[in-house]
Design goal:
Blueprint: E1 10-11, H1 16-25, E2 31-32, H2 39-44, H3 46-55, H4 61-78, H5 87-106
Parallel strand pairs: 1-2
InterPro entries: DDE_dom (IPR032874), IS_Transposase (IPR052183)
Pfam family, one: DDE_Tnp_IS240
Protein name: ISHne6, transposase
């Protein structure tokens, strides 16, 4: 912002922390929050928001780290990216993963 000057308009989502930051730097009147104005930023932040939502349930870092280590291995085991695979291939991979998962639980 030092090189280019203050922006005319800053498009953000409705997250309250953005309003606080805009007040801090003196751009609160230039902030725009609209329904479709911020689609690119919103979609890029979805994985972070999902992670933050899961992290907010834990008060201790140790419990969060236990959850994260287990969740990441399970998520990677069952995440097949449906938009890339055909329905038949997706079902084959899912069934194989479920069989392997059940074998792990029995053993």
């Amino acid at each position: 912002m030092k090189r280019c000057g203050n922006p005319h308009v800053v498009v953000t989502d409705r997250c309250p922390s953005y309003l606080a930051a805009m007040k801090l730097i003196g751009n609160e009147r230039r902030q725009e929050t609209g329904r479709h104005l911020n689609n690119r930023a919103e979609n890029s932040h979805l994985p972070f928001r999902r992670r933050e939502r899961a992290m907010s349930r834990y008060r201790r870092m140790r419990n969060l780290q236990k959850f994260k280590s287990i969740h990441s291995s399970v998520h990677n085991h069952f995440n097949f990216k449906r938009h890339i695979n055909s329905r038949i291939r997706f079902k084959q991979k899912r069934d194989a993963a479920l069989r392997e998962w059940r074998d792990l639980l029995v053993a």
